[in-house]
Amino acid sequence: MKPWTQASRSAPLNPKPRASTLSCVATLLAFIGFCSSLLGQGQPTTAVRHDRLDVIFSRSLLPTSNRNDALALIRVWTETLGRQPGVVVDLNASVADDVAEIEKRARQGPIGWVLLDPVEYFQLERLGLLEPAFMGSFGKNDEPEQFLLVTNQGSGVVGVDGLRGKSLAIQSEYRANLGRIWVEVLLQERGLGPLDRFFDSVNAVPTPSAATLPVFFGKVGAGVVERNCFEVMKEMNPQIGVKLRVLAESPPLIRGFLCLDRRPAVYHANLVRELRDLDQNPAGKQILTLFRVNRLKPMSRDDLEPTRELYTKYQLIAGKAVASRTASWAAKPVEDPVAGRPEVKP
Q1: Using CA atoms, how far apart are residues 210 and 199, in angstroms rounded to an integer?
Q2: What are the structural domains of the chain?
Q3: Pick from 229, 247, 250: nearest CA to 184
Q4: pLDDT tens for each residue of 22-54
Q5: pLDDT single digits (tens) 80-119
Q6: Stated pTM of the model
Q7: Percent of residues in the chain assigned helix, strand, coil, to nearest 5
Q8: Which of these, 54, 58, 63, 59, lies nearest to 24 by C-alpha position?
């Protein structure tokens, strides 16, 4: 079984640089502040009332592992957010480490909104409390999020099966690694076996350049990269489009999205309207740019079906692998710990 390692983060020519811990979380919290400041619009100023807005970010969608920095920024920002004449929005923003923590918060009471990856949503869907509401659009033409499997034209590889025994780099700066899940399913559907046995090595890399430039220079056999990032790289260096061959592309996938709580809340209508029209005002456009998203699009559970189908196939594959290993262990004869030892006579 080959190791699943984390590659170096010092890759050149990244067309979309990763944000630092502080700037990434600050962006998220700026989004909170913008939304919460809108919740009091249209409210009378003759009386003051308090509305509570809980928002949760899943750590799986934060390209950082420093919880202390995130929580420190949250505390600073939430002291001043959400205050409008006639209404005070008591904002409680937090980062959840895992799906169990999100479930606990959801059960405790209404959440304004929560940013989830699809696997987390599938695990929480049975609660019936959270409804998919908005997802981001990407690229110049508002295309869906997709992954590409690319190799070097000069390698002579013309099909996925030709990559056997080669190395693979997968763009993956988030815990929800849909790129790896997609390649695993792709190989199994073509009868090529498990990913970590098919390839000589598999590395997770944090940037699109780290997934493609080593392939470009012939140092890595293949790379998995997001389509919109790949298109930007081709614009910056047309030789990338000439020298790299796309062997396969994933179905449209959703890496992360906003869910709203289905339980009634006084701010719900305002929040939905302002999220939907976020790209129609300068402040909203700035926030979307920081998120590397064109706009927020209303979504439904149907939009999740390609991602759900992929994850279901992956679960079946993983389940069969576990069953196979268990059967193999069970079939092995149990060795007698004293067998072969010389007889000891009293």
Answers
A1: 18
A2: 21-139+254-303 (3.40.190.10), 146-249 (3.40.190.10)
A3: 250
A4: 455 555 555 555 555 545 444 444 455 556 677
A5: 444 445 556 666 777 888 899 999 988 887 787 888 889 8
A6: 0.74
A7: 45, 20, 35
A8: 63
